Amino acid sequence: MLKLQNTFSNTLEEFIPINGNKVNMYVCGPTVYDYPHLGHARCYITWDMVLRYLRFSGYDVTYCRNVTDVDDKIINKAKAENTTTEVISKRYYDIFSEAMAKLNVTKPDIEPFATKTIGEMISIVKDLINNDFAYEKDGDVYFRVKKFKDYGKLSKQSIDDLMAGARVEASDKKEDVLDFALWKKDEEFGYNSPWGKGRPGWHIECSAMSRKHLAKQLDIHAGGADLIFPHHENEIAQSECANGCRFVKYWLHNGFVTINKEKMSKSLKNFITIQDLLEKYNADTIRFFILTNHYRMPVEFNDEALLSAQNGFKRIKNAINEGLKFVGGKEKLSENIEGEELNKFKEGMDNDFNTSVALSVLFDLCGSVNQGIAEKNTEKTIKYLSVLSKLSDVLGFKIEKEQLTAEELKEKLSEIIPELDFLTEEDKTQDGYSIMDKIITARNLARQEKNWAVSDKIRNSLDKIGIILKDTKEKTYWEEK
């Protein structure tokens, strides 16, 4: 029986979807104005793990993750670069999407853009005004917070507490300091609306996109703990007042990533981009690091922890690869998995996605696989390897054909660099990917010039360290054998 820690009730609750076996799951997506960082990796790997386990458990999940492509930060960056908001949002959406693919994060079933949902946002705002939950003043529209009696229930704050310590902007247009913007007047970057040219407030975006693409009532709404207040609190208020029903049944929130005990964030300039991280560590190492900790707990980032994760994941990777070699390939594995280890895995994951328990089960399975190989017992190895392979996939690890990091590739190439006399001393100081580009360029030039001696020398040298080149019409790729 799956149980989730519901932020709203602050208790562990049995998971019972609204509509039988079908599950609507909404996750707050990125605001696309800058490079994604380790905090984003933690968030989206976490919800990817939840999605995978729900589907493994037999639920029919529709997963929606939005893209915020209209925002003050996007506008400010467009102004700074003297370009359009469309150029900025497309650039960073593409970078974000590529990073998620490299991290083996499942693409959502639905990925709506805020700018494509403006009509639905206007419709909700009109309903709120008509029902006296919102008011317009000089082109701005605000939500009347005190009209919603449950305001503050998610973040466990009373109206009085919020009034005493509210971190909100005062405005002459507001009736009350706690009222928040549903629509902002904006002549330059705005959209046509009944209140003049303007653009949506951040909170109304998610209410509109989740309602349009999923339902008025959601089974799961997830995001980072920093979104509990005000974003998710405001979503509840405006959605429940507009829709006349409970908005979300289960609220889930992941903890922060910290560096030197401070939350990783762009405002503190202490963030590490996913791109930079993947230069040093492969995607499975990063995922292992994140899953070692319970999703609700803060994670302290440091290289020591990543190196420990790297070694931990190698145990799993080596057991699977050696096992597959021993039994004769993945096609030998059984689709029907069972056993005590599977039960322990499910027991851990059913307890609010306790991934540290799940990883310990994977380690136990590694021991059983290695024992089967040592005993030359094919049946035993297949039995445990089938479970290990399947459960590794449920946690989102991608064992096969894993791309080397720049650092790992350089170490591998160091064995043959002395043989490759076309590399300059400067070339040899570069990262592994850059050195590999030089080798491919030299090999392609040799082929054009029909210098087969050099071409064969490069091929044979790479073959020695287990790297092969693949040619297509567009370019030449490399991969490990």
Explain how this protein is built.
- There is one protein chain.
- The chain has 17 helices and 15 strands.
- By secondary structure, it is of the alpha/beta class.
- It folds into three domains: 3-263, HUPs (Rossmann fold); 305-394, Four Helix Bundle (Hemerythrin (Met), subunit A) (Up-down Bundle), CATH 1.20.120.640; 406-480, no CATH class.
- A four-stranded parallel beta sheet has the order 4-3-9-10, with helices on one face. The protein has a four-stranded antiparallel beta sheet with strand order 5-6-7-8.
- Helix 14 (406-413) crosses helix 16 (432-448) and helix 16 (432-448) runs antiparallel to helix 17.
- It starts with a strand and ends with a strand.
- The model has no long low-confidence stretch (mean pLDDT 93).
Determine the strand fraction and express it as a percent band. 5-15%
Mean pLDDT: 93
CATH architecture call of the largest domain:
3-Layer(aba) Sandwich
Tell me, briefly, the overall form.
globular
Order of the strands making up the biggest sheet: 4-3-9-10
Q: How would you characterize the largest beta sheet? A: 4 strands, parallel
Please give the domain count: 3
Number of strands: 15
Distance between the termini: 42 Å
For the structure shown, list the relevant keywords.
four-stranded parallel β-sheet, alpha/beta, Rossmann fold, 481 residues, 15 strands
